[in-house]
Design goal:
Elements (H helix, E strand, L loop, with lengths): L1 H24 L5 H58 L3
Length: 91
């Protein structure tokens, strides 16, 4: 499966390189277009970094929620045991 993924990456990168060469040879991209392309690449990288950061934060929060739920379940168990023991006491 990794081999297919690597092959796709190679094909995509090769296609982009071929298009760049073709467009450059035909009058191609102006300096403004290249600058815009670079700005867009930077924006994509920034958004990917932000997405990764948010995924990490989500994982951290999910772990905290899981821990809190575990503690709540333990408290509920102790409460139920205490209630049962209190009911056993003579009145």
């Amino acid at each position: 499966m990794k081999m297919v993924s690597k092959m796709k990456s190679v094909v995509v990168i090769g296609g982009i390189a071929a298009m760049t060469v073709f467009l450059s040879a035909c009058g191609g991209l102006s300096e403004a277009q290249i600058a815009e392309l670079n700005a867009l690449k930077s924006e994509v990288q920034s958004l990917e970094n932000e997405a990764n950061s948010l995924k990490e934060e989500r994982a951290r929060l999910e772990k905290q929620i899981e821990e809190q739920n575990r503690k709540l379940a333990e408290c509920q168990k102790q409460k139920d045991e205490t209630r049962a023991n209190l009911e056993k006491l003579p009145k």
